[in-house]
Specification:
It is built from three helices and no strands. It is mainly alpha-helical. The protein has one domain. The radius of gyration is 18 Å and the shape is elongated.
Length: about 100
């Protein structure tokens, strides 16, 4: 029962971009994954100045890129047995054959 699993996952939202990647990854049987990194600096009693925001977002972009690259490395070194579905292709298979 997918609804039950979703409600037990503790997820609070789905974004359209990740859903599109998942739907097409499933459709074409290619390994896919999404990693949504949100960069927002909440107000904590201080004014958001443009210079501060630029510095903050530059740091977050670097951090998110490192997180994404590390996730790819973990998946790549995990091998075929780490794929969650036998219907997906491995990294070694040709994608659209």
């Amino acid at each position: 029962m997918p609804q039950r699993r979703f409600s037990q996952s503790r997820a609070v939202a789905l974004d359209m971009e990740s859903a599109t990647i998942a739907a097409n990854g499933f459709r074409f049987r290619v390994p896919y994954g999404t990693l949504l990194c949100v960069s927002d600096k909440p107000l904590h009693g201080e004014i958001k100045l443009p210079g501060m925001a630029n510095h903050f977002y530059r740091e977050r972009v670097d951090q998110h890129l490192r997180i994404g690259m590390r996730a790819i490395e973990i998946l790549r070194t995990g091998g075929v047995d780490r794929l969650h579905s036998r219907k997906l292709r491995s990294f070694a298979e040709v994608a659209f054959q």
